[in-house]
From TrEMBL:
Residues 182-511 form the Glycoside hydrolase family 20 catalytic domain. Pfam families: Glyco_hydro_20 (PF00728). It comes from Postia placenta MAD-698-R-SB12. GO terms for biological process: carbohydrate metabolic process. This is beta-N-acetylhexosaminidase. One of its GO terms (molecular function) is beta-N-acetylhexosaminidase activity.
Length: 694
């Protein structure tokens, strides 16, 4: 808790009252909460002259090394503190600051010990000591230095929001370490295309809340019985399915990826994985077989289980070799010590074939790459048993996947229980999943009214929950699925669903619920989150731009055929106003505006994002000017035509829900701010104004 002192200066930011203290009393509540801190009553003044020093004894060890993390920290610190420059990181045997040149010192002592709640050792912990001129982070290994640095970045962000660039932190000493080893999020990148630029930004954002795993579900297909099982038809050939790792040209498996524009070439994937690693996040790739495998059967129909085109026939002699050949192609890309083979929702009458497949894949992955595997919990009755060396990621009751029983049998378990941790892109059939993770459930959804933590699997049955100290309980991973495909969301809309969800999972997988006095209350979480979301460095998923004056991003009062601006994309809320007169020679492929995240075509005022087209259905007359205002929030985008305020026209998507019904929903588009007009556009655009706010 923050205690208020007499000399505090307070500011209203939106509806939050924030105070900066002449004498900072304690650390501000942050996400995730830190285990302990005792204030010494003085203050440490941060300044742009701050020296960042890494212990030369061990600072260059490991990859990433503490030096590498410190370099990332330095640029994040400039962003969060609003400093134009900070001196380069130094590597020295020690460091003490003085007035005018404070020091942040990273000390590495491999004999230091930190433990998870189950008593297992972890390298992710850190101690820290703040004196008047020196902020020391003491760790056993480089990764602890990163999380210790993120703690400081958050404190700076929470302080800077009230006090501008004069940032003073309380002196004192603290200690912190995670309760669980696995703290992650899964994104369904099989049914929806996400490029590596977006995925990289997401990793950097998640790291700010101390999540350490990005589980990347990289192959899947839409599920629609009309296409899959319609009698006599071959609809399965047309149902959207994708495998995202791009085979090199001429590879024997290149038929697996017919749409190269929706796949990750090796260099792009490696850069993304490296970016994650530099931020303490491990990418856990998932290639899902033998279910969810339409991308494979569209490539090799002979591997299909007859009558179930999205399932592989494990008894067909060529099937397992084909799966292994896919892994063999991509295993050299992956730096994680574990991969997920998916292995969910297969035909339950084929349990023996299923279990022997899973065990065979464990042996294969060990022999081929020395990696362990994870599978989703699933119901595959068999007399054979799945190897205890395989981690089971629980998501669903009440099949054979009962976590307390799995743990008792000696399996390592990761909690992804859907009652708490699942989201679906934009829309949830039957409303079973919320739009963002429910703070009610995360803060008070356990059977006893306590909050969620990786040991909580059921909201209403205490017998299905375990001790936080359970030896085999590895942690928790939330999931955002893409059941309605590319149509449903822009990439940024997926971020809007994840933004707060990742923060709450950060708190609950690092600290837990009912384990530490310092855990955040819901009110503390809700107060800190918007500040930290806005300050999160190293990425710009909010697509924030700083206008030169007032709220006006740009204003072009003249008439143009084409014009390039300094802004690639501008996130909602915004208002884009213009007058447009297309010429009779204007083609449907011409765009009026284009940017990093979206395009707007002349024809039907059609937005494009993720290769999908969203027509407004308004046809601009030729030879005369039409006034258009586009208003967007994170929830919707609409147009006002010729000042007709009473008739807002929304851009919609139409989603096919399991082939049962069509669902209409709003779309939020970032402003296509980079270019006005463009190649091919015939006509003129005038009076263009882009303003922040809706
Ligand atoms: C910064 O804040 C501290 C503590 O509130 C104050 O003592 C100091 O004078 C301020 N410095 C500047 C340059 O404003
Ligand atoms: C699976 O493959 C085996 C071996 O070729 C074949 O005998 C069997 O009929 C196939 N099963 C189905 C359901 O396709
Ligand atoms: C599997 O687990 C057992 C003990 O649970 C262990 O002795 C063995 O080394 C493990 N095998 C592999 C390949 O990891
Ligand atoms: C709890 O576990 C039992 C089996 O032990 C299962 O039948 C039941 O559905 C579970 N309860 C909940 C709420 O998931
Ligand atoms: C990739 O290309 C296909 C075929 O041209 C197209 O339908 C799809 O929209 C493109 N995807 C993206 C993300 O642009
Ligand atoms: C505009 O939309 C209408 C119906 O929404 C459609 O019939 C027409 O083909 C579209 N025109 C263009 C140029 O896309
Ligand atoms: C995508 O949208 C179109 C209409 O624009 C619709 O016909 C189609 O079924 C949708 N696809 C999915 C997978 O929802
Ligand atoms: C779109 O958003 C507007 C404004 O919130 C709302 O009135 C409308 O019902 C939404 N449309 C759909 C299809 O959800």
């Amino acid at each position: 808790m923050v205690s208020l002192l007499a000399a505090a200066v307070c500011f209203w930011i939106n509806t939050l009252l924030l105070c900066s203290h002449a004498l900072a009393a304690s650390l501000q509540p942050q996400i995730p909460s830190i285990a302990s801190f005792t204030s010494a009553g003085d203050s440490f003044q941060l300044s742009p002259n701050v020296r960042i020093i890494v212990d030369s004894a061990h600072g260059l060890e490991g990859a990433p090394s503490a030096l590498s993390y410190a370099q990332t920290f330095r640029s994040d610190l400039m962003s969060v503190a609003g400093f134009a420059h900070v001196p380069p990181v130094e590597v020295l045997p020690g460091g003490t600051g003085f007035a005018g040149a404070p020091v942040i010192y990273i000390a590495i002592d491999p004999t230091m010990q930190f433990a998870l709640y189950n008593g297992e050792p972890t390298l992710e912990g850190y101690d820290f000591e703040i004196t008047e001129y020196t902020y020391t982070i003491k760790v056993a290994a480089a990764i602890g230095a990163w999380w210790g640095a993120v703690t400081m970045l958050q404190q700076v962000a929470l302080t800077a929001v009230a006090g501008g660039t004069n940032i003073s932190l309380p002196t004192g000493a603290g200690s912190d370490s995670p309760g669980w080893e696995v703290r992650g999020f899964m994104l369904d990148a099989g049914r929806h295309w996400f490029d590596t630029a977006f995925l990289s930004e997401l990793c950097i954002y998640a790291s700010f809340f101390k999540l350490n795993e990005f589980h990347l579900h990289a192959s899947d297909n839409l599920w629609n019985p009309d296409f899959l099982y319609g009698t006599g038809n071959e609809g399965w050939k047309d149902l959207y399915a994708a495998f995202r790792f791009q085979p090199p040209p001429g590879s024997p498996i290149d038929g697996l990826v017919p749409r190269l524009n929706e796949s990750w070439p090796e260099n792009e994937f490696l850069m993304f994985q490296q970016t994650c690693s530099e931020h303490g996040v491990t990418v856990i790739p998932e290639i899902d077989t033998p279910g969810h495998s339409l991308a494979i059967t569209q490539w090799k129909p002979e591997l299909m289980l007859s009558g179930q085109p999205d399932l592989l026939n494990l008894s067909y002699p060529a099937t397992i070799p084909a799966i292994k050949s896919i892994w063999q192609q991509f295993l050299p890309w992956f730096t994680s010590s574990e991969v997920s083979i998916g292995a969910d929702e297969y035909d339950a009458s084929l349990g023996d074939a299923y279990v022997s497949f899973v065990n065979e894949m464990f042996g294969f992955m060990q022999a081929e790459a020395g990696k362990s595997i994870r599978i989703w919990g699933t119901n595959e009755p068999s007399t054979e048993i799945i190897s205890k060396n395989i981690t089971i990621q629980h998501w669903d009751f009440p099949d054979a996947d009962i976590p307390v029983q799995l743990l008792a049998a000696g399996y390592n378990v990761i909690n992804s229980e859907q009652a708490f941790l699942y989201l679906d892109g934009k829309y949830s059939d039957g409303g079973v999943y919320p739009y963002t993770l429910s703070l009610d459930l995360m803060f008070s959804g356990a059977p006893d009214g306590g909050g969620w933590a990786p040991n909580i699997f059921s909201p209403n049955d205490p017998s299905n929950n375990t001790s936080p100290n359970e030896l085999h309980l590895r942690g928790g991973i939330m999931a955002l699925w893409s059941d309605w495909g590319n149509n449903a969301t822009t990439m940024l809309e997926d971020y809007y669903q994840l933004a707060q969800s990742l923060a709450v999972v950060g708190e609950k997988t690092w600290a837990g619920s009912g384990m530490r006095a310092s855990e955040l209350s819901r009110a503390e979480f809700e107060a800190a989150y918007p500040i930290l979301n806005a300050a999160a460095p190293g990425q710009n998923l909010n697509r924030v731009v700083l206008p030169e004056y007032g709220d006006v991003v740009y204003k072009y009062p003249f008439t143009y055929n084409t014009l390039t601006t300094p802004y690639a994309s501008v996130g909602p809320p915004y208002t884009l106003q213009f007058s447009v007169m297309p010429d009779t020679h204007s083609s449907n492929a011409d765009f009026l505006f284009s940017g990093e995240d979206s395009k707007l075509y002349v024809a039907n005022l059609t937005f494009e994002a993720t290769g999908q087209l969203y027509p407004l259905g308004y046809v601009l007359p030729v030879g005369t000017y039409t006034d258009v205002e586009i208003h967007a929030t994170a929830d919707y985008t609409y147009a006002i035509i010729n000042g007709d305020e009473g008739n807002p026209r929304y851009w919609y998507t139409v989603m096919d829900i399991w082939g049962e019904y069509m669902e209409v929903a709003n779309m939020s588009f970032a402003a296509p701010a980079q270019q006005i007009g463009g190649e091919g556009f015939v006509g003129s655009v005038k009076d263009v104004v882009l303003t922040l706010g809706v």
